[in-house]
Amino acid sequence: MNRQRPFVGFIVAGAIAVLAIAIAGFYWFFPKNPASFITSTSQPGATIFVSKLSPVIVSLLTNPDSLQAFEREGELSKLKTTFLAKSGIDYQEDIKPWLGNEITLAIATLDIDRDPENGQQPGYLLALATKQPEKSREFVELLFSKRALAGANLNVEEYKGVKLISDNQQAIAQSQIQNNLAGAVVGQNFVLFANDPKVLREAINNVQAPDLNLTSSSEYQKATKELPKGSIAVAFLNLPIVAKWQGLELAEQTFNSEIISLLLKPKGLLAETAFVGSSENVSPSAPLTKPVGALQYVPASAGLVISGSNLSNLANSDVAKLWKQATATIYGSQEDVVSGFLKPLGDVQKRWGINLPKDIFSWVQGEYAMALLPQEQTTPHWIFVAEKSEGVKQGVARLDAIASSNGLTISPLSIDNQKISAWTELTTASKKNNDQNRASFTIETKVRGAHTTIGNYEIFTSDLETMDEIFTAKGNSLINNPKFQDSIAPIPIPNQGYVYLDWKKSQDLLEREIPILKLVEVLGKPFFNNLRSLTVSTYGTSTEAIKAGVFFQLNNS
Fold it and tell me: Are strands 498-502 and 304-309 parallel, antiparallel or unpaired?
């Protein structure tokens, strides 16, 4: 079925780009607590128009002009001009006077006519809060009059006391208009647009029959309890329906919904998310009240770091359940949590014939830190630090035995008087001797890994150079680095540890592993140009939801 791209599709892309560019841009211009200058509503009011069966709803809870006040190079103005160019609408004159503090976009229905035989055409609903209903009515009339001048035939109808205006879909193919559009002003608070008048009729029905709309959904109500105050944007996902929309099958379902909120912080943007399930969740271990001590052995040069405690219980944790649901849905199988998330360690697992959860994680009951040190055009070096606890000695001995079974030699070495055990491989290299017509051989030693004990921690590295960097960079460890301290400051305490990514150091590695990331960077260029790091953590004490946050630290000078 040949579908026309909905008019609101341009608005979707524009809204995402506007938000990303504005947030990134104004930090250059105004680094001091911009959040205090932004007013937002606590929750979207447009949920009364949206069905309980909507897979996704996204809301900007502040007027775009409050963000524009902090832009650096007119990004918002350029976007408004670009996305409104074909409509003949001027934002400053036609929209700004009446636009309020909410813009909500929803997938209102997976299929407008509910007929699977003619293909699936989602119904899109855009709701804009209005502070001057009369001016917003004038805008709707103006918009459709311009579409009529461009060749569209218009339909006007009264539906349950609301005036609906829409394009005549049979005649639209012969006009200069390429997208279907329907619009209405509902009550005193909202202007609605959709890609089909059926979507608007259902939106009005949802208001008049409250048990049909999202506001009355028990899942939505549970999710909104997790919303932090001061959010400037919110997204709600009904996960089973999202899977159905994408043609996926939930082989394992632990979580029913997800809610995401965006908060402005002095040094960046905090995205908080809560996954809500039908059963109570159990935390993987006691929460941490301070950064993991193992980070003192991770150099500040690290590009990617994962830290926390009690890896032995990882398989039973809520994060593992979340990963299983995602991988079972997307890939149809339950892939290993870490090998999919930290590929270099996954490569080690395959090369050495070890099982990370069984051979390593099972004996790590205390603190731990895993880190990658990116190298240009080569596989990144890695570090693994584990706090001593019951079973550590036996675990290390087992790894030595596995190394030996793979043909490696356990060689005792010293670096700066620190005793080290290195896993080495002996290889031979031959060279032709022209005088005697005989080959001469040399023996080369390659280090495949190393480990040592310092204080209360066992340290493993991919090579001796990385081990030496740990010894020589004691005064410049990650835990003492100001940039890292800034990156974890917005994350609530207690928490379950951190995943820290230095964007500049890890960008090349991530682009190699995730090719589509390059396209995302192009679309959000101003944001990624200003991105310094991102930090992920899980936290919260709710038994109904897994709560997590991602802090995007942005350049502000």
Answer: antiparallel
DSSP state of 504: H
* 332 inside domain: yes
Question: Final residue of a domain: which of 210, 234, 264?
Answer: 210
Structural domain total, the chain = 2
Q: At 448, is the secondary structure helix, strand, or coil? A: strand
Tell me if 496 is assigned to some domain.
yes
Beta-carbon contacts of 407 under 8 Å, excluding residues fewer than 6 positions away, are: 425
31 and 169 in a single domain? The answer is yes
DSSP 267: T
Q: Is residue 358 part of a domain?
A: yes
Q: Note whether 169 and 304 are same-domain residues.
A: no
pLDDT digits (tens, 9 = 90+) for 500-528: 999 888 887 777 766 666 666 665 666 77
Of 249 and 65, which is predicted with more confidence?
65
| Tens digit of each residue's pLDDT (9 = 90 or more) over 125-166 | 999 999 999 999 999 999 898 888 878 888 999 999 999 999
Same-domain check for residues 78 and 179 = yes
Asked which of 178, 210, 242 is the last residue of a domain, the reply is 210
Q: Kindly state whether residues 54 and 148 are assigned to the same domain.
A: yes
Is residue 22 domain-resident? Answer: yes
Please indicate, yes or no, whether residues 159 and 50 belong to a single structural domain of this protein.
yes
Conformational region of residue 301, where left means phi above 0, alpha means psi within -120 to 50, and beta covers everything else: alpha
Q: Give the model confidence (pLDDT) of 158-217 as tens digits.
A: 999 999 999 865 554 444 445 688 999 998 999 999 989 999 999 999 999 889 999 999
Specify whether 308 is located in the same domain as 202: no
DSSP letters along 482-519, please?
A: HHHHHHHTTS-SSBS-EEEEEHHHHHHHHHHH-TTHHH
Calculate the alpha carbon distances from 493 to 82, 422, 514, 538 in Å: 43, 38, 31, 10
- Decide: 324 and 382 in contact? Cβ < 8 Å: no
398, pLDDT greater than 60: yes
Q: DSSP alpha helices (H): ranges in 267-376?
A: 318-330, 337-341, 343-352
Owning domain of residue 80: 7-210
Number of neighbours of residue 299 by Cβ within 10 angstroms: 18
Do 511 and 502 meet the contact criterion of CB atoms below 8 Å apart?
A: no
Residues 201 and 299 in one domain: no
Nearest CA-CA partner of 421 in 396, 402, 392: 396
Judge whether 254 and 243 are in contact, CB under 8 Å.
no
Exposure b/e, 483-506, CB count within 10 A at least 16 = b: ebebbbebbeeebbbbbbbbbebb
* Statement to judge: residues 300 and 188 lie in one domain: no
Give the pairing type, strands 378-387 and 268-277.
unpaired
pLDDT, tens digit, for every residue of 339-373?
Answer: 444 555 566 666 666 777 788 888 888 899 999 98
Peptide linkage before 494 cis (omega within 30 of 0): yes
Q: In whole angstroms, what is the distance from residue 144 CA to residue 147 CA?
A: 5
